[in-house]
Known about the structure:
The chain is an all-beta fold. It is 0% helix and 50% strand.
Amino acid sequence: xxxxxxxxxxxxxxxxxxxxxxxxxxxxxxxxxxxxxxxxxxxxxxxxxxxxxxxxxxxxxxxxxxxxxxxxxxxxxxxxxxxxxxxxxxxxxxxxxxxxxxxxxxxxxxxxxxxxxxxxxxxxxxxx
Length: 128
């Protein structure tokens, strides 16, 4: 059974940092892609970042480029999202999601509808 569990959310002041973790189980990261998404109240789900196990390619949403970094530790079955220079508009529930397949993310990430497996989410709140 595929499972993803996010952690690391919390309350932080504007300009601060958080690191989210997505621990996955039930599959090897050899041929999967993992994406981070977020959803704020009353807003549509937004793609934040993605990483491909095939070639290590990554990509980011325009609103987080230069501030967020995605990485993976295959030995720990974990994908991280390092979030720096946080802004109040980053406040949302953050989800990680996984889909099996061979992907290259040099151009763009997959939309959320492509992902089959989702975590329960972790709340990130940024105070101004």
